[in-house]
Design brief:
The chain is mainly alpha-helical. It is built from seven helices and three strands. Helix 2 runs antiparallel to helix 3, helix 3 runs antiparallel to helix 6 and helix 6 runs antiparallel to helix 7. The structure holds heme C (HEC).
Length: 160
């Protein structure tokens, strides 16, 4: 084989490998593991344990919102800050990498945006923010809950 032929084969191999890497990166970072859900939403397909983790985190949101509402009703801004921070970005790090790869980019962006907004609510509450301001921020973040639920559902690999 001539040197020119060899280098063409090397280049072709490198090109194929780059394509494979790009396809894997696309799948892992952008597309995730999804199928069309039976109710028109996009279903994210997770292992049963991953689905349980996601739903547990969701229920923790409701529990956290209960604490925020209770603190707000007493104008207890440190209480608002504490409960909001518990729903902040620190929480997002609990998600295992393998599960991250199954979540579509838009979903991850919405999820991170939600956690970030709770960080901001906490920071504002600590910086002498009023209950009315916190309530407006809360109404805003709840729109993200609504938006995500309107677009996505979660199914486990065992079919449920
Ligand atoms: C990034 C997307 C996303 C965001 C943001 C989000 N959720 Fe969810 N949530 C989901 C998905 C997906 C499900 C599963 C829905 C399904 O399969 O029908 C779910 C389910 C739930 C459930 C049901 C839990 C269970 O045990 O079945 C509750 C409660 C919930 N979410 C509350 C919230 C609240 C409150 C917020 C906002 C503070 C929120 N979620 C924000 C995606 C999201």
């Amino acid at each position: 084989m001539t040197d020119a032929a060899k280098s063409r084969i090397y280049l072709a191999t490198i090109a194929v490998l780059l394509l494979v890497i790009a396809a894997m990166a696309y799948k892992f970072i952008v597309a995730g593991s999804t199928e069309k859900g039976d109710d028109g939403r996009l279903a994210i397909i997770l292992e049963p344990g991953e689905r349980a983790l996601m739903l547990r985190e969701m229920r923790e949101f409701v529990a956290g919102l209960q604490l925020v509402a209770d603190a707000l009703s007493r104008d207890d801004m440190p209480g608002v800050a504490k409960a909001s921070r518990a729903m902040g970005t620190a929480k997002a790090h609990d998600v295992p990498v393998a599960m991250m790869g199954k979540l579509p980019l838009e979903f991850k962006t919405l999820a991170l945006g939600t956690h970030r907004e709770f960080d901001i609510i906490a920071a504002d509450a600590e910086a002498n923010g009023t209950p009315k301001h916190a309530l407006a921020q809360l109404a805003d973040v709840l729109q993200k809950c609504v938006a995500c639920h309107a677009s996505y559902q979660v199914k486990s690999t065992t079919g449920k």
